[in-house]
Amino acid sequence: MSDKLKHIAFIMDGNGRWAAKRGLPRSAGHKKGAEVLQEIVKAAADMEIPCLTFYAFSTENWHRDKAEVDYLMNLLRQYLSSELKEVKERGARIRFIGEREMLASDIVEQMNKIEKETASNEKFTLCIALSYGSRAEIVHAAKNVAADVASGKMRLSDINEQSFASNLYTSGIPDPDLVIRTSGEQRISNYLLWQIAYSEFYFTKTLWPDFSPKELKEIMDDFNTRERRYGKL
Ligand code: IPE
Ligand code: IPE
Ligand code: MG
Prior knowledge:
By secondary structure, the protein is an alpha/beta fold. The protein has a single domain (7-135, 174-223), classed as Decaprenyl diphosphate synthase-like (Undecaprenyl pyrophosphate synthetase), CATH 3.40.1180. Helix content is 42%, strand content 15%. The protein contains seven helices and six strands, in the order E-H-H-E-H-E-H-E-H-H-E-E-H. It has a six-stranded parallel β-sheet, with helices on both faces. Helix 4 links the parallel strand 3 (92-97) and strand 4. Helix 3 packs parallel to helix 4. It starts with 6 loop residues before the first strand and ends in a 10-residue tail after the last helix. The chain binds 3-methylbut-3-enyl trihydrogen diphosphate (IPE) (2 copies) and magnesium ion. Residues 12-17, 57, 61, 72, 183 line the site of one 3-methylbut-3-enyl trihydrogen diphosphate (IPE).
C-alpha cells in the first residue's frame, strides 16, 4: 500500500485531437476540455483528494496560432468568472502558478482576487498552471535566492532544498504523489520538474475531453498498489 495520496497533478492533453477526430475545430476540444476539468475537480473533491494541480497553458503554448491562444484566453476568462465560483463554494483554496507577466492584466486581476478570496479555505487546494513553464519557474526562484544573498537577507549557507523550494511558485503545496497525463504522449513538457522528483506517473491514451471520474478512480486504485521506495530498501 502506498502512502496516503495528497496531491495529483494532471497534464490535460489531447483536446485538439479529440476535436479533429470529430471533424470539429480545435476550439471545440478546448471547450469540452474545460467542462471535463470542472467535472474532475468535483469528483476529486468528493474523493477528498487534498490537492490537485492542472496544467492548463504552458509557456510554450504562447507559440500557437494567435486565434487559438485568443480562444484559450477567453475560455480562461469565462472559467475564472463563472466556473470557479462553484469550486470556491466547495471550500477550495485556489492558487495559480506560472509567468503572470505574460497574461492580460484583466486576467491577472481576476487571478489575484480569487487567490485572496480563497486563501484561508481549507477543504482542498486547487492549483492551476497557467503560462507555466518549470524551467522558467526554477530560474525565477534562483534569481530570488541570489537577490536575497546579494542584499544580505540570506547567507550562502542558508541555501538548501527547503529554502530553495520556498521560492518556487508552488511554495506551501506538497509535491505531487501522482502525475497523470492523458492523450498517450509520454513526456513531461516542462511541468513541475523540481516537484516530481519522486512522483509516480500514469500515462493514459484517453484524450482529455474523454477523461472521466471513473478512470480517475481506476488510476488511483493502480497507484494504491505501487510501492514507493525513495531509494531505500
Ligand atoms: C491540451 O490539448 C490543451 C492545451 C495544451 C492548451 P492540446 O491543445 O495540446 O491538444 P492536442 O495535443 O493537440 O491534441
Ligand atoms: C502540455 O501539452 C501543456 C498543457 C497540457 C497545458 P502540450 O500539448 O502543449 O505538450 P507537447 O507540445 O505535446 O509536449
Ligand atoms: Mg497537446
